Automatic annotation (TrEMBL):
Keywords: Amino-acid biosynthesis, Aromatic amino acid biosynthesis, Lyase, Phenylalanine biosynthesis
Enzyme class: lyase
CDD domains xrefs: ACT_CM-PDT (cd04905), PBP2_Sa-PDT_like (cd13633)
Biological processes per GO annotation: L-phenylalanine biosynthetic process
One Pfam family recorded for the sequence: ACT
Domain Prephenate dehydratase: 4-187
InterPro entries tied to this protein: ACT-like_dom_sf, ACT_dom, Chor_mutase/pphenate_deHydtase, Preph_deHydtase, Preph_deHydtase_CS
Biological or metabolic pathway of the protein: Amino-acid biosynthesis; L-phenylalanine biosynthesis; phenylpyruvate from prephenate: step 1/1
UniProt domain ACT: residue ranges: 203-278
GO-annotated molecular function: prephenate dehydratase activity
Name used for this protein in its record: Prephenate dehydratase
Catalytic reaction annotation: prephenate + H(+) = 3-phenylpyruvate + CO2 + H2O
Gene that this sequence comes from: pheA
Keyword rRNA-binding among record annotations: no
Length: 297
């Protein structure tokens, strides 16, 4: 059928790997976009039925660009989630593979990837300047395109293989349990390979005004109805300093209507609640025992 699914590209990003797990080829055709806003906007406009973007990392936390774009620029449904293992690698043009680490002048990567390796970089590449690009695979492509420069890219092994880089070091993230949560957006689809580990609902809650206990009351409604919240994240409304939207992820338990009841209560207190989607959650190791995608390289 070859249904196209958009992902944060170019080929070889972690998001590409996540997209391949969520939307396996040949049934789907994973198609790169240049940035997270491009993926979300293309899905919002109906140019793609499906899209995949990162939303949270175990070390660095939220991918704010994804959260903000979901709130302010598009109206797309979250339709699935994948928690995927992240191994960061230091990769260089083969011309420089024998150079000592301190001889490299520039580190190129996505801000999330750099942040996941901050101590490692301070220790081993203290003099190198950092240049940020829109994805780790873009960083690999950039380093490959400048063989005359002593630059390193941080990113997945698959990007290194795709753009002809040598791996100098693997697993350079500062903490071992590095995972990123990716979301699928757009239309619902049946994942052909796996049973989900569970179901979640994502909600965007905006308080009517700031008064003592406002957020407490919201959380109390979920607690009273026995709804387990797995995440709460605030982002500025961008309208006034000190005002926030709250992203709340709620586990869908046995009592299916509990979330609806909690949302009803919260709305009756004057809060605005936008439902971002109810969706199945996949964990990479549980997708039919698959190992991390190697992009067939
Ligand atoms: O640049 C990539 O490879 C991406 O897929 C983006 C991204 C992110 O934004 O979090 C995805 C996973 C890793 O946490 C690092 C970067």
């Amino acid at each position: 059928m070859n249904e196209p699914a958009a992902y944060l590209g170019p080929r070889g990003t972690f998001t590409h790997e996540a997209a391949q797990a969520l939307f396996p080829e040949p049934h789907f055709q994973n198609t790169p976009c240049d940035s997270i806003p491009d993926v979300l906007t293309a899905v919002d406009r109906g140019e793609f039925n499906f899209g995949v973007v990162p939303v949270e990392n175990a070390i660095e936390g939220s991918v704010n660009l994804t959260l903000d774009w979901l709130v302010h620029h598009v109206d797309v449904r979250i339709t699935g989630e994948l928690v995927y293992p992240i191994t960061q690698n230091l990769m260089v043009h083969p011309n420089h593979a024998g150079r000592p680490l301190r001889g490299f002048t520039r580190v190129v990567s996505h801000p999330q990837a750099v942040a996941q390796c901050r101590s490692h970089l301070r220790k081993h590449l203290p003099e190198a300047r950092v240049s940020y690009v829109d994805s780790t695979a873009e960083a690999a492509r950039h380093v490959a395109a400048h063989p005359e420069e002593a630059w390193v890219a941080i990113g997945p092994r698959s990007a290194g293989a795709l753009y002809g880089l040598s791996i100098l070091e693997s697993g350079i993230q500062d903490y071992p349990n590095n995972f990123t949560r990716f979301i699928a957006v757009g239309n619902a689809w049946d994942h052909p390979l796996a049973d989900p580990a569970g179901m979640k609902s994502s909600l965007l809650v905006t308080l009517p005004s700031d008064f003592p206990g406002a957020l407490h009351q919201v959380l109390a409604s979920f607690a009273r109805l026995g709804v387990n919240l797995t995440r709460i994240e605030s982002r500025p409304t961008k309208k006034k300093l000190g005002t926030y939207h709250f992203f709340i992820d709620a586990e869908q338990g046995a009592e299916e209507s509990a979330i609806d009841k909690a949302v009803g209560e919260v709305e009756s207190r004057g809060c605005h609640v936008r439902r971002l989607g109810s969706y199945p959650c996949y964990s990479f190791d549980k997708i039919n025992g698959m190992r991390p995608v190697d992009n067939g390289l």
